[in-house]
Write a structure and sequence with these properties.
By secondary structure, this protein is mainly α. The chain has 6 helices and 4 strands, in the order αααββαααββ.
């Protein structure tokens, strides 16, 4: 029956468009548009009703600390600034801990780079007469041994199984990503060390302009004003 019902011709009913005299009001609103607009209107209406109920039944003796820690700016409640939340000693201690963590990650990345470089025999080291390939299982190891024994010479990279090629390429990509990560960590460590020195060293200082720097550098250079020692 369903096939016969679909075989009967049905007229396609098109939605009515906006009349020509009312085109200045834009597109004609359909029922689905009205449903979306009505839901949004009722949602806002319910939210306002709940707020009115809270204001009507509020306790005049109610108190919480945000009443004295916030202020109204253009009708919006904003918390007080937490810039002076920590003392100078606490800030110095936190910066020292952050620098120690960055230094630890930097040393860890360097060790991993050395290990990968030793395995892949990167160009940074002297080339070796022997090249070590790591097989994933015994079948790959046997296949590599057979190819080496048949040819009578060292195994060429192109003759290796595809899985080992993919693994080697992934290791080289990992090496490059770790090298770039070390560069970013070194830059971050130098910046944090500079900020720590500026925070600990007392006295009036100013940042030198580019024409005042003797040796041009991309990093900022500061100069402390001489103070008379008693």
């Amino acid at each position: 029956m369903s096939s016969l019902r679909n075989a009967i011709y049905r007229r396609t009913h098109k939605e009515r468009s906006q009349p020509h005299a009312r085109r200045k009001f834009g597109l004609l609103e359909k029922h689905k548009d009205y449903v979306v607009r009505a839901k949004a209107y009722h949602k806002k209406e319910e939210a306002l009703q709940k707020l009115k109920e809270k204001a009507a039944f509020r306790n005049p003796d109610e108190f919480y600390f945000k009443m004295i820690k916030t202020k109204t700016v253009d009708g919006v409640h904003k918390l007080e600034s937490e810039a002076n939340r920590y003392t100078q000693e606490e800030l110095t201690l936190m910066k020292t801990q952050d620098i120690g963590y960055i230094l630890q990650k930097l040393q860890s990345e360097r060790k991993k780079i050395e290990k990968l470089t030793a395995e892949l025999q990167s160009l940074d080291h002297q080339p070796s007469s022997r090249h070590v390939y790591y097989a994933e299982d015994r079948e790959d190891a046997k296949e590599m041994q057979l190819q080496t024994s048949k040819g009578g010479k060292a195994l060429v990279f192109e003759d290796l199984p595809d899985r080992i090629k993919r693994k080697t390429a992934a290791s080289y990509r990992e090496l490059e990503s770790r090298k770039s990560r070390v560069i970013e960590l070194e830059k971050l460590y130098m910046d944090m060390a500079l900020q720590k020195e500026l925070q600990q060293k007392k006295g009036r200082k100013r940042k030198l302009r580019e024409d005042e720097i003797v040796s041009p550098t991309s990093k900022p250079v500061y100069k402390w004003r001489p103070e008379r020692k008693r």
